[in-house]
């Protein structure tokens, strides 16, 4: 609820401080409602225009997943429950926008503050010793990134179609990693690892298209792709070896990509200072691979469908 209130206040403040509301672009205030998992994830980007050529902005998004998976090893069977949550705050520090007849380009400096939490819980039943080993884990990734944003926009192609393509490249990222792992029995054990390190370049690409169908309906189609590489030290526990008495520290490599596609329907007749109510549907594909120096190799794939409701003025 606090997130929704904050988003609404920020939106109203933006409208109040921008005297020429027709100049507002890139504004998005949405709630994503998960079809498969029922999660509610607010997402928004709210710009602040200082002049015709200079603007800043603030963006926020969240996501969450929950998965129950059966585990089968050489020594027995078990169950693994995983939950992930992500919270990201993006600040467009300052961007320059140059306007032409029916197009413009924008270049700016951005900062990103992101927290990702990965929770695991489960058990393995050892057929040999006839005992159950339970394990729990909590991994927290907190990162600060400094990046460059750029986009190019063309409007009113054939009087009904507008297009924007853009990218954010983040070459400077500091990651703080905190991990706690525990298991019982055979030997009750708990371990913690804390580390900080700079990461490889992250980037995302996006394409946004608007179709002015009529005075009653506009359609926006969005496509985005995000790539995140992470390398860090981590604790390892081999659930196939229930007699393992120690956690082992190893270096792991994590590579994740997220592909997001959605379509929004805008109602221009019900606009508020040029900002229009919107609703739609979307699908998100998440792919990741994890490997470590201890021999771990794992792939995770998930697909999420969601509804969208909110307010929008992209072009």
Describe what you observe in this structure.
A hairpin with a 5-residue loop joins strand 1 and strand 2 (40-49). The protein is mainly beta. The longest helix is centred in the N-terminal third of the chain and has 16 residues, at 2-17. Strands 1-2-3-4-5-6-7-9-10-11-12-13 form a twelve-stranded antiparallel β-barrel. The two termini are 28 Å apart. The protein has a single domain (2-313), classed as Lipocalin (Beta Barrel). Helices cover 5% and strands 73% of the residues.
Q: What is the element layout, followed by pairings?
A:
Layout: H1 2-17, E1 27-34, E2 40-49, E3 54-72, E4 76-99, E5 103-126, E6 131-157, E7 161-184, E8 189-198, E9 202-212, E10 218-236, E11 248-266, E12 276-292, E13 297-313
Antiparallel strand pairs: 1-2, 1-13, 2-3, 3-4, 4-5, 5-6, 6-7, 7-8, 7-9, 9-10, 10-11, 11-12, 12-13
Shape: elongated
Main sheet specs: 12 strands, antiparallel, barrel
Distance between the termini: 28 Å
Give the total of beta strands. 13
What are the low-pLDDT stretches, counting only 5+ consecutive residues below 50? none
Structural class: mainly beta
Beta content comes to: over 45%
| CATH domain class | Mainly Beta
| CATH-defined architecture | Beta Barrel
Order of helices and strands: HEEEEEEEEEEEEE
Mean pLDDT: 81
| Assembly annotation | single chain
